[in-house]
Amino acid sequence: MLARFKDLCLDAADPHALGAFWARMLDAEVVDLGDGDTRIDPRSTGSGTESIWVNRVPEPRTGKTRVHLDLRLAGAEPAALLAAGARLVREPAGEIRWWVLADPEGNEFCAFAPRPIG
């Protein structure tokens, strides 16, 4: 092994607002790092999930984000994510069976229906 994944870092104009958004999406906790940045920690220490760091950057995002999060929905549709501040970019159509949403800073992410039981 050459390396092991540590964390995901998101650049943001407003780390507190974006951190709060992702904490709502992932049922996680926002930690104010005291320097303008935030960290999103999983609530369950045994989850095996690493933190997401949200770092303040001075420049605006330009173009499409090249890395994004994929989420597995708790319900059949992303209504709860939309109610919590996500914006719908694209609904499932044809062979594409997932929703594309955007966070408050316009970063796109994908939302997939729950896995079938059985």
TrEMBL record:
Domain Glyoxalase-like, first and last residues per copy: 8-111
Record Pfam families: Glyoxalase_6
Matches recorded under InterPro entries: Glyas_Bleomycin-R_OHBP_Dase, Glyoxalase_6
Origin: domain of life: Bacteria
Name under which the protein is recorded: VOC family protein
